[in-house]
Specification:
The model has no long low-confidence stretch (mean pLDDT 91). It contains 14 helices and no strands. By secondary structure, the chain is mostly helical.
């Protein structure tokens, strides 16, 4: 798809443009979608209906900008680690196609674009955006100092939730913070599945993750996290007075989690990656449930 889109560019800049797009994972939208669904959960819940067009456009564009910025700073932070991991050795910085300085420039430009978008909201949302930018910047470096970088990732990915509530309501109600906590749990679940793909390589390279921390207890712990996430989302539904479509979507989410756990039972790399990607459908199912529950209320 990228090659088709880049055909219109002059040959002299085509390869470099492609490297920048790969650096920001524009060829792999799954990460952006995992950030988009919770943002849309929050926008619909904050508006109690279809959200106003302005915050919907701002936050949807912001999701893709911040995810792309996060990928750029992540590869900068991992520039010495990625060459040691088979799955990431071909990334632009690791392969020498993009310099670390170029990655920092891309990160700065995308961060500035996201901040410009936030300027069209309100003062509270602008203030919250600084914490979101800080979380996005520090996350890639946490895997060197803690075995729980997935928690920081969850906070960074989920910070759009209180920002969305602030943009629509000019405040963050308790249900917004509850949804934020639930999203951290979900992020730890799917990013642990993702980290299980590289667990052996990460151990050898000296990186840290919840997949390494959990060890042989990874599957039982994931089961506990899944149950806690579903319970938190149940409380979200109760506080938001959502009806039967939402409860049906949570049932679907539980079924998808069951499929994921069955897939990773042997901890095979391809199965763990498939389970991680399946969370896109889970996020969409919950969003559909929220939309329909608000529509029939």
């Amino acid at each position: 798809m990228l090659d088709v889109l880049l055909q219109r560019l002059p040959p002299s800049i085509r390869e470099k443009a492609r490297d920048y797009l790969v650096l920001t994972r524009m060829d792999r939208p799954i990460g952006a979608l995992l950030l988009l669904w919770p943002t849309w959960w929050a926008l619909w819940l904050a508006a109690s209906d279809f959200p106003p067009a302005k915050p919907l456009v701002i936050f949807t564009l912001g999701v893709f900008a911040m995810r792309a910025a996060g990928c750029a700073i992540n590869d900068f932070a991992d520039r010495k680690l990625d060459p040691q991991v088979a799955r990431t050795a071909g990334r632009p910085i690791a392969a020498g196609r993009v310099t670390p300085r170029e990655a920092l420039i891309v990160f700065g430009v995308l961060l500035a674009f996201a901040f410009i978008l936030v300027l069209f909201t309100n003062a509270l949302t602008i203030k919250l955006s600084f914490a979101g930018a800080a979380l996005a910047a520090i996350y890639p470096f946490t895997k060197r100092y803690t075995y729980m970088p997935q928690v920081v990732l969850g906070a960074a990915f989920g910070w759009s939730i209180p920002m969305a509530f602030a943009a629509v309501l000019n405040t963050v109600p308790p249900v917004g913070w509850l949804l934020f906590i639930a999203n951290i749990l979900w992020s730890v679940i799917y990013d642990t599945q993702y980290a299980m793909v590289d667990r052996d390589d990460d151990i050898e390279a000296g990186a840290k993750s919840t997949a390494i921390l959990f060890g042989d207890a990874d599957l039982p712990i994931l089961g506990i996290l899944i149950a806690t996430f579903l319970l938190a989302m149940l409380f979200v539904g109760q506080r938001a007075a959502l009806g039967w479509p939402y409860w049906l979507s949570l049932t679907a989410a539980a079924g998808l989690f069951g499929w994921q756990m069955w897939r990773i039972r042997d901890r095979a790399r391809d199965a763990c990656l498939a389970a991680f990607r399946n969370n896109n459908w889970l996020g969409m199912a919950v969003w559909i449930g929220i939309v329909l529950a608000l529509a029939v209320r």
